[in-house]
Each structure stands twice: as C-alpha cells, then as structure tokens.
Specification:
single chain, alpha+beta, conserved putative lor/sdh protein from methanococcus maripaludis s2 fold, Elongation Factor Tu (Ef-tu), domain 3, Helix Hairpins, 4 helices, 38% strand, rod-shaped
Length: 357
C-alpha cells in the first residue's frame, strides 16, 4: 500500500517537472523570438559593383613574334657575335660555322662546270658544221646543265655557313657558343620582336563565349606600376587546352617604348558589357562575406522582409574584386542584410539602422 502511494507521488512530481520545463522553454522561445537584432542592409543592384563589374584574368606577356634562328647545314660553330639583349637589324650576321668543307665542294663543282661547258661548246661547234650526230650535242649540253645545277647547290651550302637575322629584333636567348656542333634546324639564338607584344590569358569554357576578337581590354603590368594599357583581343583559340576545359586568348598591345618585356605578369580586364546572366539581366554582385553555407553545402543569405529576416538560398557565379556574382536567388531591389547576419535565424525580428546611427 505504501509503495502504491509512493508511485503516485513520483508520477505527480514527474508530470510537474515536465509541465514546468515546457513553460520554461516556451518562455525562452518567446523571449528569443521577441529579441530584435539591429542590422544594416544593401539594396541589391544599386551598388556600383553590380553595374560596373570587371571580368579580370591573370596573364603573361609574350612577344608578338619569336623566331628560333638555325643553320640549314651542319658544322662547328666558329662564332656567335651577339649577346642576349642585343638589338639586331634584318640581314645582320648573328652566327657562323666552319664552311671549309662546303667551300671545297663548291670549288670542285665549279671546276666540273667549266669542264662541262668547254666540252659542250666544242661539240656544239662540230654539230653546227654537220660533222657529228645531234644526240652527242644534246648529251654534252645536258652534262653542262647538270654541272651548273650542282655548282649552284654547293654555293648555297657555302652561303648557309653564315646565319643572318631574319628580321629586326632583340636576342632573347643563345643556345650555342663557339665550338658547339650545329645541326640543321637546331636553334642557335632566339630572336623576338617586341614592338608589339601580347598578353596570353587562360579563359574557362563557361566564359570563353563572352569574349570575341576585336574586344577592347585593359591590361595592367604590376612591374610597370598602375598604368592602364589599352589592348585589343587579337586571337582566341577554338580548342581547349589538353586535359582541361580552358581556352587561350591573346590581347595585342603596342609597345613602342619597349618597356613591356616578355615574361612579365599582368592582369587583363574586360568591361562587363556581355557578361550578364544568361537571360540578359545585369550581373548582381554582393559582398562575399554575407554568404553562409549549410552543412550540406547550400549557400544562403538573409534579406530583410519587413521587420523579419528571410533566409534565401542562392547560386553563385564568378568572383570579382568587389564581391561575388549571384546567378539565382536574389533580384534587384532586395534588401540584403550585410551586418548582424551571423546572429540571425529564419523569421528573426530585425531593425534596420543607418550608418549614421
């Protein structure tokens, strides 16, 4: 009997504790709900970043024309009378090999040509008198012509023992020195023309169609200061680089003062005239720090909906210096919460304040 009363009492106490906990939680939730969070907002689409966004890429400067000069015949290099950085004119001597063998061959061929010529002239005189068959005269003439051709070929080898600059330009590299063995097609020096240069850019496949030949670009070379250099898109590859969905674009730059050197790094930006969303609407750019991520990887922001916070899931695009592009989830005119958002949950009561407060 006593145990029965004890069980009744314990049961009553348990119920009281549960009721008390429920009342306490309700009071706490009510207190939390009624708590007002002061926030600052940004009107989506009204910030200058959204209307003046710049697509910016990192690139490298290359010479507009680069030629690897090489011999057409083999031989031991006698001299390379140029140094890296030298400016050379077209047809200036830049290297020479030992051409003794080729000179000897040419002299032998000249001797054969003279002999064949004399033989042809003698037989032709006899033929003109009618004392010899025409076939003999034709054979002699053929031998003479063959000797002429052989002599000309030998002379080309003599000429090719000296290497001349194919254009005006700077010596950017030397691959051989005196004493090296030159082979046909093996580079001796690299010659570049930097009167014009080009910025070489890697463009993702999702953005390559936003750039067309003839577009104007602004190029900044950090090593030359903050000066903006205007350039024109000169070439765009139609096939991606092997193994990656990346294309290459070339922006041509005038370099009359020759201050821009191949190998310098640069940044290239294009006015965002064609880089809006697929539906043609202007790109919306917001501060990247206002975006949060759920445990399952979804991105969201908070916008002010009257006096409460409204969670909006968004899709992001390209990252800019001024923020990150939003491709879906926000529209122009939304009041994006940019201050106090880390304290918010769905439907939290908020109060918009101005910077002056």
């Amino acid at each position: 009997m006593k145990d029965k009363y004890l069980r009744v009492i314990l049961k009553s106490v348990s119920i009281a504790i549960v009721l008390l906990a429920a009342v306490s939680c309700g009071s706490e939730e009510k207190t939390q709900t009624n708590k007002v969070i002061k926030i600052k907002v940004l009107n989506v689409g009204s910030n200058p970043a959204s209307s003046n966004a710049q697509i910016e890429y990192n690139g490298t400067i290359e010479s507009d024309v680069a030629i690897n000069a090489s011999f057409q015949v083999s031989g031991t290099v006698l001299s390379v009378p140029v140094r890296i950085g030298d400016f050379v004119k077209k047809n200036q001597l830049i290297a020479q090999i030992d051409g003794t063998v080729y000179t000897s061959q040419y002299e032998q061929q000249l001797a054969q040509e003279r002999l064949a010529k004399e033989n042809y002239e003698r037989i032709n005189n006899v033929f003109q008198k009618g004392s010899i068959a025409e076939i003999r005269m034709l054979e002699a003439r053929s031998q003479y012509e063959q000797a002429q051709a052989a002599a000309k070929m030998s002379y080309q080898n003599v000429r090719h023992a000296k290497l001349y600059a194919p254009m005006d330009g700077y010596i950017s590299d030397k691959m051989m020195e005196a004493g090296d063995l030159a082979q046909p097609g093996l580079p001796v020096v690299e010659l570049v023309n930097i009167k014009t240069v080009k910025a070489v850019l890697a463009i993702p496949d999702s953005e390559i169609n936003n750039i067309t030949k003839g577009d104007t670009a602004t190029v900044v070379v950090p090593s030359l200061g903050d000066m903006d250099i205007s350039g024109i898109v000169d070439e765009i590859s139609i096939q991606s680089d092997q193994g990656s969905p990346v294309y290459t674009a070339y922006v041509k730059l005038n370099n009359a003062e020759k201050k821009i050197k191949p190998g310098m790094t640069c940044t290239v930006s294009f006015k965002n005239s064609k880089s809006g969303n697929a539906d043609g609407k202007p790109t919306i750019i917001i501060p990247s720090e206002s975006i949060a991520v759920t445990e399952d990887g979804k991105r969201f922001v908070y916008v002010a909906n009257g006096n409460s916070a409204d969670r909006r899931y968004v899709e992001t695009g390209r990252l800019y210096d001024s923020g990150i592009a939003i491709t879906n989830g926000l529209k122009k005119g939304d009041q994006l919460i940019v201050s106090g958002y880390h304290k918010l949950t769905q439907s939290t009561t908020v109060e918009i304040i101005n910077d002056s407060k």
